[in-house]
Design brief:
Length: 446
């Protein structure tokens, strides 16, 4: 159980890596889709509230454990538990996280593959001459062709694993740092365009004007799961990154920066996408294809649309790439620490995830009629269960571990912040985050 020796090159490098993990499909693809399915403003407000009340405290807990343990998640948990006189079995929490990440990555690679396909299509300029209906039909036709979907899924898996195999922290993070501001800029341009469309006002009202009647228990659960997903919290992924954190860097400051940026990107994407939805008379609840239909429609209206759209998909690809690397890293690090070579670990995890992702990839074609539970396809199950159930359960246990099990002096030291922040964080986690999380999860069982 030796300590890891790797460190991020600088404080900024850590923040960049965590932002890279957080900002991804969750913000640009999943958020608008979820807002649409869950009736708009109520989901959005709940999501923001959950990010602030649950996401932030749990994110602090998770990074703190990684940094205090300076080991891979399972080992860090076992080490810190033993040090505090607790049970070694806490390491099973690391395993639960590994399983969660495995399942998330399985569908993440499929959807990232869709954007790979769109990257090529976008530059070809095909979208410009098509009507919104034709663009929608083309997306459905693409999903219904197993070969194309699987080729892209495979390609994305290879991209991810070839970075993880050689250790994270170098080239790609720098690229990410350079290019992510461009993605934000493109989103701002899109929102600027959206402001000129007829749907802009409706979109703003629908997104921000609270409509209490839309609250149902499912909306609450979905919003909570999404808050964890988008912050990359609840499965030890950030625990693994925290282990490489340099001495002296303040955890709270890093975490607040990342969370605010994450909310901002989601809001920009939401405003842009729903303005288009309402100006084109589309259905907000169009499901996982929402982004893939609205964005080509929007960009095709701009001069030089093919170039804009193509650039957007390149930037999105980089955003999803850095997230998928974070999804894979803890699993690979765990196998590696068990004695396998990094390359072998990456190969094993990569093939396993790819295989388990196949049913999701085929859920819109050969397996569209296979609905194992409650009318849900494999894709629906893969996108729901790890996100809405496993991440919150993992987050609850991580928070519990950090505030009730771990040695307090250890935690204070690992935070690299003042004592006062520690006390506030611990009170909020103990008396707000943990009870609230438990309440929603228990409610979900009924
Ligand atoms: N936060 C990432 C996104 O929004 C997904 C993710 C989830 C990454 C869990 C790591 C761990 O796309």
């Amino acid at each position: 159980m030796s300590e890891v020796v790797e460190r991020w090159g600088s404080r900024r490098a850590f923040i960049i890596a965590v932002t890279g993990a957080a900002v991804g499909l969750g913000n640009i693809w999943r958020f608008p889709w979820m807002v649409g399915e869950n009736g708009g403003s109520v989901f959005l407000l709940l999501y923001v509230a959950f990010v602030l009340l649950l996401g932030l405290p749990v994110m602090v807990a998770e990074i703190l454990i990684g940094r205090a343990g300076r080991r891979t998640p399972m080992q860090a948990l076992a080490f810190l538990a033993q040090e505090a006189g607790g049970s070694r079995h806490w390491r099973l929490l690391g395993l639960l996280g590994g399983i969660t990440l495995f399942l998330i990555l399985s569908f993440y690679a499929v959807v990232s593959g869709w954007s790979l396909e769109y990257l090529v299509d976008a530059f070809s300029g095909d979208f410009a001459s098509r009507s919104p209906q034709e663009i929608g039909a083309a997306f459905d036709a693409f999903l219904a062709s197993p070969g194309r979907v699987i080729i892209n899924q495979t390609l994305f898996m290879v991209l991810t694993m070839s970075v993880v195999a050689f250790g994270v922290g170098s080239g790609l993070e720098r690229l990410n740092n350079l290019l992510m501001p461009l993605l934000y800029l493109l989103l701002v341009v899109l929102v600027g365009y959206a402001a000129t469309t007829t749907g802009f006002g409706t979109a703003l009202r629908w997104l921000f004007w609270p409509d209490p009647q839309a609250i149902t228990f499912m909306v609450v659960l979905n919003a909570m799961g999404h808050a964890f997903f988008t912050l990359a919290v609840g499965a030890g992924a950030l625990m693994a990154y925290g282990a490489y954190m340099p001495e002296g860097q303040s955890v709270p400051r890093a975490v607040v920066t990342v969370a605010l940026l994450d909310i901002l990107v989601a809001l920009l994407a939401g405003i842009a996408i729903f303005s288009i939805v309402f100006s084109q008379g589309m259905d907000p609840a169009s499901g996982p294809g929402l982004m893939f239909v609205t964005l080509p429609v929007a960009f095709s209206q701009l001069p030089g649309g093919a170039l804009w759209l193509g650039s957007f998909f390149i930037l999105l690809l980089i955003a999803t790439w850095t997230s998928s690397i974070n999804l894979a890293e803890p699993m690979v690090a765990m196998l590696h620490s068990a004695g396998l070579r990094r390359v072998t670990s990456a190969l094993l995890i990569g093939s396993g995830v790819w295989l388990v992702g196949l049913p999701s990839a085929l859920s819109f074609s050969w397996l569209s009629d296979v609905q194992p539970i409650g009318g849900m396809t494999f894709f629906d199950l893969a996108t729901t269960i790890p996100t809405d159930i496993l991440l919150p359960v993992g987050g609850l246990l991580i928070a519990f571990f950090a505030v009730w099990v771990m040695d307090a002096p250890r935690a204070v030291q690992a935070l690299s912040s003042n004592e006062r922040f520690f006390v506030i964080w611990r009170q909020v986690t103990r008396w707000i985050a943990i009870p609230l999380l438990t309440l929603v999860l228990v409610g979900a069982m009924f």
